[in-house]
Amino acid sequence: MIKRRPQRRRRSFKLWEWLIVLEANGGNCVYCERPSKTMDHVIPFARGGADSLSNLVPACESCNTSKNEKTPPAWWISTFLPFGYSFGGNATPQGNEDSRSLRDRYLTLHEEVLYILDQLDVVASEITNPRRTAWFQKAFGSTYFNAYPPPTVRTRAAICRRLYADELSTAREAEWPQLKASPFRLIGRK
Question: What is the pLDDT of residues 45-64, one digit of tens each?
């Protein structure tokens, strides 16, 4: 009899956790710099990656969907490896407009992958910065924010990013000052 491994379940992230990830890297996708809308597991969850803040980065929908269950290097290479080549039926390059050798093009791609990996490290350290974590927990960790009516935490995160864009920017510039209480007036309460 074959024993099946119990299937891992993704955990539900709290609002402050969504915001701490989405607001990293200036609120932009770590891969393409467009505005972030979702969280990407750097090491895909389906491939054993941790379901924790240290394995999450901000991503746009397009990059997150395209990356799917690939690691960043595998995704980047599979996306950009063709180097402008398409091969005919006899395996000869067709339509090559790049006069560099295949080796030179690979080295360029290798440098790009190393840059992406360095960027992922920078963003991961930003996300897990204790001062920043404390700020987001204090600002958005209240029961009120986690009980807010919209249907998903992702929707609540998008609403908070729009409503509190100025406050988030100010806190970022002040390098996440220590808070005694949430600085936000609770919507619907006087």
Answer: 989 999 999 999 999 999 99
**Interacting residues of 38 by C-beta distance below 8 A, sequence separation 6+:** 22, 58, 59, 60, 61, 64, 154
Distance separating alpha carbons of residues 52 and 43, to the nearest angstrom: 11
d(CA 62, CA 162): 21
Give how far Cα 19 sits from Cα of 47, 83, 162, 175, Å.
Answer: 25, 37, 11, 16
182, 164 contact by CB (below 8 A): no
Cα atoms found within 13 Å of the Cα of residue 63, Cβ hemisphere only: 22
Q: Which residue has the tokens 């360095």?
A: 118
Nearest Cα to Cα of residue 22 among 149, 156, 121, 147: 156
Q: What is the residue type of 150? A: P
Cut 0.90: pTM above it = no
Q: How many angstroms separate the Cα of 153 from the Cα of each of 23, 64, 103, 166?
A: 15, 18, 46, 21
pLDDT digits (tens, 9 = 90+) for 83-123: 444 444 444 555 555 577 778 877 888 888 899 999 999 99
